[in-house]
Design a protein that fits this description.
alpha+beta; globular
Length: 388
């Protein structure tokens, strides 16, 4: 049921893949998280590859440029369909009251004229990046070391007074007025109350997950579980959700009435660490007995599997972990490590993985796949078809 809801239980579409397929993915999962790490590919591209296979990599940028998607703090920073803008206005209003990073709210409190002037600059001059309002001329420290210009833009973004797209060359946010980016029907749609919006977001989460606990559903759109609990109770009372028991789970779970368990599961996918199927680590441990930690911020000598490790889904199991890198200088997809999970048929997994890696290399425009030696699957993948 969970894989069906996430759009990962059947074969990928064949033939020409276009904007209709993108909309279907968003209809299925509701949101795609954005992340700047680019050792393989920007993470927001991987959920589409997992569900669509080889597809035009311009789908999300084109849909964003055309005003079909917008960026906001939906899970973390994320792409969201513009018709859901109304569901996040309560978050924007809460941000104005201080529900955001404290430094941004402090800037608004102490220098409101400066923040208004930044907004006026965007209104008068058009889309801006942080460098256009830079106030700090010294060397930049760590990535969170924002000057007041960047902080003002982020405050305005968080509160919904500005929206943003991404600049291709460096992934920087390009800030603009919402009315210059999003269609009027999305911005002028009636604003639900915070209660109504929170409940609708929980329903979207339930529909996207298939089945989930209160923590699972609340995390999907970053609601606090204590705040979500009374709304879940209301949705059960009205019949919009069904409370169920899942074998092996300690906590009660919730199912959307439209959820259907497929008769067969035949999916195959390499999953981003930030894919909605696996971004809430306790849930994938419950579902798949798969203990997953991203090791980007772990010192290299202490990493168990590697820097950028993707779970490999085969049918209804997470069967392996693959440490991947795109070497664009040599045009190779680098498999730095391939590790099988317990009690899997390694030859079958290696064969399927080899095909998936070949498809990924083609999608990324890389000429070949290079398999290293780390992990108990590496030698088998090397020998599998289509991998040289």
């Amino acid at each position: 049921m969970a894989l069906a809801a996430q759009g990962l239980h059947t074969s990928r579409p064949t033939g020409r893949i276009d904007r209709r397929h993108l909309r279907k993915v968003f209809d299925t999962i509701g949101v795609i998280q954005i992340d700047s790490v680019n050792v393989l590919v920007r993470s927001q591209e991987l959920p589409l590859f997992a569900r669509l296979g080889d597809h035009p990599r311009t789908l999300i940028p084109d849909a964003t440029a055309d005003g079909e998607l917008f960026e906001y703090w939906a899970h973390e920073a994320a792409h969201v369909p513009v018709e859901h803008h109304r569901l996040f206005r309560w978050k924007m209003n809460e941000a104005k009251k201080g529900a955001m990073w404290s430094g941004l709210h402090e800037l608004q409190k102490t220098k409101p004229h400066f923040v208004r002037n930044v907004l006026k600059k965007v209104r008068d001059e058009g889309p801006l990046v942080a460098g256009d309002v830079k106030t700090h001329t010294g060397p930049k420290g760590s990535w969170w070391d924002w000057d007041e210009g960047k902080a003002a833009l982020e405050y305005l973004f968080w509160t919904g007074q500005l929206t943003a797209t991404r600049r291709e060359k460096d992934f920087a946010r390009v800030y603009d007025l919402p009315e210059r980016h999003m269609p009027s029907h999305a911005l002028q749609s009636p604003t639900p109350s915070a209660t109504e919006a929170r409940r609708e977001l929980l329903l979207l989460a339930a529909r996207s997950l298939g089945v989930g606990t209160a923590k699972d559903l609340a995390d999907y759109f970053r609601q606090r579980v204590t705040a979500a609990a009374p709304h879940l109770a209301h949705l059960v009372k009205t019949g919009e959700l069904e409370q169920v028991r899942v074998e092996g789970w300690r906590e009660p779970a919730y199912v959307h009435p439209a959820a259907r368990a497929p008769r067969t599961v035949s999916g195959r996918a390499l999953l981003s660490p930030f894919d909605s199927l696996c971004w809430f680590r306790p849930r994938i441990e419950r579902l798949f007995d798969f203990n997953y930690r991203i090791e980007i911020y772990t010192p290299a000598p202490k990493r168990v599997y590697g820097y950028y490790v993707l779970p490999f889904l085969l049918h209804d199991r997470l069967v392996a972990r693959i440490d991947l890198k795109a070497d664009r200088h040599t045009s190779r997809l680098m498999v730095n490590g391939a590790f099988a999970e317990r009690e899997v048929d390694k030859k079958v997994v290696a064969s399927e993985l080899a095909d998936e890696l070949s498809l990924m290399a083609k999608w990324l425009g890389l000429d070949s796949v290079h398999v290293g030696t780390r992990g108990d699957l590496s030698a088998l993948v090397k020998r599998a078809s289509r991998v040289r």
